[in-house]
């Protein structure tokens, strides 16, 4: 899977090292050759020498010279993303400003402002990580601004991240977790959005290799084992289609390729099935060589040839020819019933569409030159710009909003007049209203979807026709923020709520002014700030608002002193000192050795979102107010925490301690047979002597779904229990569940 092998033990002498670096540089020039214009070679040489000189004393974790990293990034940019000469220069220099003595001015002097600007954008991105979260969101905004100015910044960053993921082996475990989580959280969706499917897939697979090593190895092993029979099946499937397509006279290629490990694993999780039951382990691709004006007709012709041979599943047809995705992806996907009753997914594309699917954005520009058509990327950038301009400066939710708004898959819905609107998956009728206009959004009271009345929170599906119903009496309220997913709707609702709050607060401001003047204190910034601090409110606006809605009645003002016209707050009475609440936690939570500054045993809490137990692969997270919380590395929240707050993650490992039991949940699904519950409880409490804390069983239509909460000592005991339960007759699946799914 990994295209770059990590050198096991690096041991080259200086002479061999020089040769290796030159060899890599020449290889880079070779792949760039078709794009070189006069004078380019000289520029590249200067960039290479500048980077080599700047990084000459630096080494990567694996021991190899650092300059090999920028060279590898530049090569990924050319070969896998389709970038050109200017981007290659930027790739070579991408780490110089941040890590060496080279300054932006040096780069601008040598290579001009355009290259300096891109390198500056890249420097900002590397600083995103490992700072506190609001600064991180700030930096993320900077990148997105640079992205909308010059998308090459993100493309080079993706090449950089891909090379780092391919060489992650030499990093420490907690660094691997952090980088892999960040990759899944931001970079894989970003590459998907840029239309770089191959890179997205590889990033997800590599991240999974570190985040879920067991599952990854298991699926990789099974894929290797089934390779021969898959190839046999693919050949048998393709043969009749190939014969029919040959008769059409089209130039084409047809082949099968395995699905990525990550997507197979996702399917297993989502559908709750075993590897053997994932039917589409591979996809068949038909690629047509055909002129632009015949593309649509050709693809549909191929579709009809395939569906003459095999029966298609009507709800699995995806037509991205008439409506390309916003990242430029065009293709026709269908799933048909192949020999031996197996479902097979087929993707039909032309050579041009295939290049766009693999090289995304870069290929897009290549085909765009000379067309006046404003493509979907431009629209997407426009939307990002719009949101960036409206954002509050302290937006920590920004990363999250950005993810749900711009990195999600999109759906297409229609206005009553038939115009298409593109929205992210999970958008609601209210999002659609704001997409039309902020006034329509603010006054929205409901919607008609396909002529049926639905509430604001109704989730839209592709192809829906949506008509918004408004009323001039309607006003946005707090709950709306939980209904919408698009960044535009969120920021407009927040603005409206702020305005509303200001209007209410004006009344409170007037009340406070009168009270202060009666006491002989001035109504000024200093006194208002003192009161806001006294009442523990974040801003004067909140203070006025609380006074206005009568949450604060200002009776404490009588305890204040007035000096001149300044308020003096009363001296706080020292409360009796209580022992620190972390120490006071119940001893139930076992011991954990924390590797960090000190190797002492520390008390901690177990995260509720994933209920870790001893033996699980875990990390500690320093949470505000709660001390240390322990999460499983595959917890649903792990990727977000590790990606956003990496600086608060502590390396943790269990200490053996058999005395304490941990509560964990199991979800059991099986055939609803006489005595099945007795068999389960008998096994758990009778044979294995494990305590049951709670149990709910629901039987419907011949199947039963059971949730059982048990006390176990550690992961080994839980694994034994799960394996024994699976062996009982009639039991289909046994899974651990997180409390969120209860």
Automatic annotation (TrEMBL):
Q: Which GO terms describe its biological process?
A: guanosine tetraphosphate metabolic process
Q: Which Pfam families match?
A: ACT_4, HD_4, RelA_SpoT, TGS
* Any GO MF annotation of the entry: GTP diphosphokinase activity
Q: Which GO terms describe its cellular component?
A: plasma membrane
The question of whether Transferase is a record keyword is answered with yes
Asked if the record carries the keyword Iron, the reply is no
What's its EC? 2.7.6.5
The domain of life for this entry's organism is Bacteria
Which residue intervals define the domain TGS in the entry?
409-470
Q: What class of enzyme is it?
A: transferase
State the UniProt keywords alphabetically: Transferase
Q: What does this protein do?
A: In eubacteria ppGpp (guanosine 3'-diphosphate 5'-diphosphate) is a mediator of the stringent response that coordinates a variety of cellular activities in response to changes in nutritional abundance.
What NCBIfam families does the record point to? Answer: spoT_relA
Q: What is this protein called?
A: (P)ppGpp synthetase I, SpoT/RelA
Q: Which organism is it from?
A: Niastella koreensis (strain DSM 17620 / KACC 11465 / NBRC 106392 / GR20-10)
